[in-house]
Each structure stands twice: as C-alpha cells, then as structure tokens.
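Hi team,

Below is the intake form for Signal recognition particle receptor FtsY from Cochleicola gelatinilyticus. Please confirm the fields before the structure is written into the shared record.

FORM ID: S-0412
PROTEIN: Signal recognition particle receptor FtsY
ORGANISM: Cochleicola gelatinilyticus
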Amino acid sequence: MSFFKKIFSKEKKETLDKGLEKSKSTFFDKLSKAVAGKSKVDDDVLDNLEEVLVSSDVGVNTTLKIIKRIEARVATDKYVGTDELNQILREEIAGLLSETNVGNETKFEIPEKNTPHVIMVVGVNGVGKTTTIGKLAFQFKKAGKKVVLGAADTFRAAAIDQLQIWADRTEVPIVKQSMGSDPASVAFDTLESAVKQNADVVIIDTAGRLHNKVNLMNELTKVKRVMQKVIPDAPHEVLLVLDGSTGQNAFEQAKQFTAATEVTSLAVTKLDGTAKGGVVIGISDQFQIPVKYIGVGEGMEDLQVFNKFEFVDSFFK
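The structure came back. Fields below:
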C-alpha cells in the first residue's frame, strides 16, 4: 500500500516519534507476548491481538474493525507470518482511518472565507484546554495570522489568569472580564474587538463543567447565539479538547460533549506522558469528527496538526 510517504519535516517527525514512545513501547511489549511461539497469524494470534488493541485503548468497536480487516487479509494471502504483523497492522489501520475524513491536514491553516475565523474551545477542566488555546495562538501567529483570545471561562478565576499568562507569552491580545461575569458577554466583546482589529483568528475559552449537561448545553447555546449578533455564522469551529492519558475516559467525555453541543473538531492532549496513545486511533474512527490537533510534549511547538498517516507511521515504527 502507498499510504506512507514523507509529509512532516524531520524535526516535527522526531517530536511525534518521541511523543508516542511510551505508547509504542507498551504496545509492542504486549504484541510480542501475543505472538510468542507463533510463526503464523492464526485464530489464537488474532484473539490475542484483539486483547492487545483493546487494552491499548483503541476501543472495542475500532478493534473489531481492525481484526476483521486482518482476517480478510489472512484469508486472501493464505499464509501470513507473525513477523509481518506489524506492517499489516500499520497498513490496515491507516486504511481504516482513510475511510473517514479525519487527519488529512499538515499545517495550521484556517478557511479563507471566514474572517475572522472563530473557534470556540470546550472540554472539562484539567484536560489541557487553556494550554491548547495558548499553543494554538502561538502556532497561528507563527503562521502569520492575527489572533485574539477570549476568556469566557468566567467560572474560575484561575482560568482567566492562566489564559492571560498565555496571551502575554504569545503576545496576542486578550478580552476578559472579572470572574463570575456572563460568558456570553465576554464572547460578544471578544468578537467585536476582533472585528475592529481585523483579526484572522478568534479563540474563545469556555467553562469546563460537565456535571450538569443541561446547564452546559444552555450556556454554550447562549454563547453561540450572542456571538452571532456580531458574526452571523460564528462559531465556525467548536473544538473539543480531550486528555489522551485518560484512555477510555476520553471516549466518554467525547460522547458527553457531542451530546451537549455540536462539536466539529477534536484535540487530543498529553500523549507524550502516557501509554494510551491508541485512543487517538479509536476516537478518529468512532466519532466521525476530525481529530485536528494532538499534544505530544510540553513545548509551544509540541501541539501538532494531526495527520493520520504520520501518526500511524510513528506508532508502528
């Protein structure tokens, strides 16, 4: 198969390889045990492989799809050795992800038709939401875009302070009010300011509460409605940030937030400190929502645009 060709720069690829090292080494440890003493991919090996994929947080539904594809490959090729299993996995997972429109991008870009392009960021507290916003601001600014941040997570003073730190660090303007202010009011002021400044990108932080889905839905709906008084089709993107190190819990958060609001893209963070990187494969396949960004380190450059071919290539390298 011709899925794999050089897309990322050498430096970016090395960062991705390093960020996925824990996930990769844990996966291959399990895989080597699954095929120990076997020379041929048979039913026992496939059963063991299924267990390896599920325990690597790929998710049950996606695992079953992968196993089905490998079964078909084994049936066609008649004899498939266990020494070929890594390459087959790599090809079949890339093929599976190619069937959905996820992870095709390579650069930090925005559609030219939206000026400014408004991104509303959602996610529970602690997933790296504000840090992701800061890194996005850095990357968009580096790409030559004029960025404005909006601190609409007014539920916690710490969230406003943290976003201010990122605004200072990246040298982009921020619109904020005091803790307890109406989030929709902050969003309105941010968009008005962005229009006046001829900004290219607006990134709005929102509160990360999920204990009451109805309240969350009402709040996010109100924020959207008020934004549209300034820019009729805003927000152009609703980005859900998920903590990759939580594995299956990230799936659950994705379910909850997609039920509460219309999520259009995903960012999966903290992949460098975990062995649960397989969650990106499952989330990419299951939610029909593109994984747009992945966090593979703590540095400003370590938020990367997710490209499924580069990711699978690094994971199975």
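SUMMARY LINE: The chain has a mean pLDDT of 89.

Thanks, M.
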